[in-house]
Amino acid sequence: MREAKTTRRYADKLVGLTRRNDTPVWVLAHVEVQGDPQSDFAERMFTYNYKIRDAYQVPVASLAVLADTKRSFRPNSYRTALWDCRVQFDFPMVKLLDYTTPERWAELEASDNVFALVVMAQIRAKVTNDAETLKRWKFRLMRLMYERGYERTLIEELFRLIDWMIRLPEELEAEFRQELYAYEEQFQMPYVTTVERAGIEKGKTLGMQQGEATILMRQFARKFGTDSAETYRPRIESAEPEQLEAWSERILSADSPETIFH
């Protein structure tokens, strides 16, 4: 909202739900995933809730998923008051760290909800310090996908997500992929393996990044000169495609190189 005094706010996920019967009533479910402890998180949940409600004029359910590793960080309400005017906002909260207990972890492993694997990957990435142990967990999660008989496209999507969550040192990553190659061969798959497809996707992303960087360098040289473009080359060539796209738009109205990268 242009007239808002606060900065721009982004909701992680805003989903409209419809009832199974013909009742013309609908609600909005706002899911906020928080990866790090923040002192103002409860207030931010309240802000999201009332702004979403104000925009759509329907009930809003705000749900918090806490993915951090600080056990004491458990915000589930926001309160404020001035004289006899009070605001009380309570919201449901799930702490992923609670699922590290044997009982709760068993619930995740037994669940047929595909998102349970994502939760397991996130938890292990957060709480496991030993790289060898993390590699074994990464392989175990991949094996669960095959054992549950997921479709190929779903396995590929889950692999990309888990691969992004669970980062391994280069040597261990190579070992993990070799083990996964051997495991996939047992299924005699007549197509490119999961890790090969992941490599192809990574290559596409890299090609996109290089193309965006080249275009921005040309724009930079034309507007501010070749010497100025060379000064900023390292920053441009190491940026992600989304960032390069934003800079390419800013350069059209920029008065100086500094205004592009603010």
Automatic annotation (TrEMBL):
Looking at the record, the residues that make up the DUF4351 domain are 207-255
Q: Which InterPro entries match?
A: DUF4351
Q: What is this protein called?
A: DUF4351 domain-containing protein
Q: Which Pfam families match?
A: DUF4351 (PF14261)
